[in-house]
Amino acid sequence: MKILVIGSGGREHALCWTIAISPLCDALYCAPGNAGIAEEAICVAIAATNIDGIVEFARSKEIDFVVVGPEDPLVAGLVDRLDAAGIKSFGPNAAAAALEGSKSFTKEFCQRHAIPTAAFQRFDSLEPALTYIRQQGAPIVIKADGLSAGKGVTVALSLAEAEAALVAALRDGAFGAAGSQVVIEEFMIGEEASFFALVDGSHTMPLVAAQDHKQVGDGDIGPNTGGMGAYSPAAVIDEAMTARVMKEIITPTVEGMAAEGNPFKGVLYAGLMITAKGPQLIEYNVRFGDPECQVLMARLKSDLVPALIACHDGQLAHVDLRWDDDAAICVVMATNGYPGSYPKGSPISGLENASQDQAVTVFHAGTLRGLDGQVTANGGRVLGVTARGGDIRLAQKIAYQAIDRIEWPGGFCRRDIGWRAIDRLG
């Protein structure tokens, strides 16, 4: 098969790394890719949001299957266009991708189908929103309704912080059209986890769970990011909790989307809060998480490609996936200044030294490789140093040893990824 992966981040590198070893894959392309992906696939200079360009390339190369990594092209209808062109793909169509594309859509969907989630209100003008939060008090959660690369959420611990978030979104346009409407939610108390399930429109297959670290700083402090690290397994999602999540959240969602005429195909990523009452849905994503995808692919023992194809074909009931018992951890290395403004072009060395341990894989995200072979930073989140170990403590140790072999004065990372799981070990 000729397979095309869409995207340029660490998630897409992990997907290419996994797909490249499939016996079904005869040729692998990635649009647009990055310096690391270029070692696994033929990179083509087509932006992930250039839907016309992607469809034309897929036609010209007679691509058999397209795997869509990021959310933007999904929400914009790339899968719809590929379907119309007779090209199979992995991911939901635009109508089903609204589960991520609009937080208000998802909240109202949850109301219709009795899916447990935080109480909420949505607003598109500032003054009523300010009045509402003053009535509710803090802590409270402010979310831009649309796509904002994981940065449109403010967990406001004070009214002043909540007011500032509303002003930024609704008056100052900090998130553009994505923030022209906001969802204000109650603050939930519990432990967050990331839950993934493959879906073929009617059947579902839960994957192993993970937990990520969204805040930029050690101790889970500072502003939210796209993700500073992740690990798997997540002890908070044991066998009993998996059954509850499937029964109370995933299955009602899949059945509800089908009943409403928008059957979901692809990977459904539920951001959960495990509360004293049980699992509550924080939000849905309609693609693999980043950096959670990196740790899932590190633990996967099966060929991923048949499962992805089965999602498209409605044949998921006939596929099984096997997972390594080892733990995996991914530590994101980001450019100094992230998630605020940051420079591009700082040189990175020592990547070969970091990967000398077979338990380590360095997934690239925002990287470029010059004609002289020099890798430079070309984004905020730049590398995902991923390691496996017999338990999470060992995996963490191996990951940070690898990081310490990377020479990048222009970058930083958190030094406590996996702390919650390690605390559980005692």
Q: Gyration radius, to the nearest Å?
A: 21 Å
Low-confidence residue ranges: none
Secondary structure tally, helices? 14
Q: What helical percentage do the residues reach?
A: 25-40%
The total beta strand count reads 24
Broad shape: globular
> Per DSSP, what share of the residues sits in E-state strands of 2 or more residues?
25-35%
Mean pLDDT rating: 95
User: Pairing-aware structural class of the strands and helices?
Assistant: alpha+beta
Largest sheet: 6 strands, antiparallel
* Termini separation: 47 Å
Specify the oligomeric state.
single chain
Short account of what is shown:
The chain has 426 residues and is of the alpha+beta class. It has helices at 10-19, 51-60, 71-75, 78-84, 94-101, 103-112, 126-136, 159-171, 239-259, 292-299, 304-313, 351-354, 392-403, 419-425; strands at 2-7, 27-32, 42-43, 65-68, 88-90, 120-123, 140-144, 153-156, 182-186, 191-200, 204-206, 211-212, 215-217, 221-224, 229-232, 265-275, 278-285, 327-335, 347-348, 360-364, 367-369, 375-377, 381-389, 411-412. Helix content is 32%, strand content 27%.
List the SSEs and their pairings:
Blueprint: E1 2-7, H1 10-19, E2 27-32, E3 42-43, H2 51-60, E4 65-68, H3 71-75, H4 78-84, E5 88-90, H5 94-101, H6 103-112, E6 120-123, H7 126-136, E7 140-144, E8 153-156, H8 159-171, E9 182-186, E10 191-200, E11 204-206, E12 211-212, E13 215-217, E14 221-224, E15 229-232, H9 239-259, E16 265-275, E17 278-285, H10 292-299, H11 304-313, E18 327-335, E19 347-348, H12 351-354, E20 360-364, E21 367-369, E22 375-377, E23 381-389, H13 392-403, E24 411-412, H14 419-425
Parallel strand pairs: 1-2, 1-4, 2-3, 4-5
Antiparallel strand pairs: 6-9, 7-8, 7-9, 10-11, 10-16, 12-15, 13-14, 15-18, 16-17, 18-23, 18-24, 19-22, 20-23, 21-22
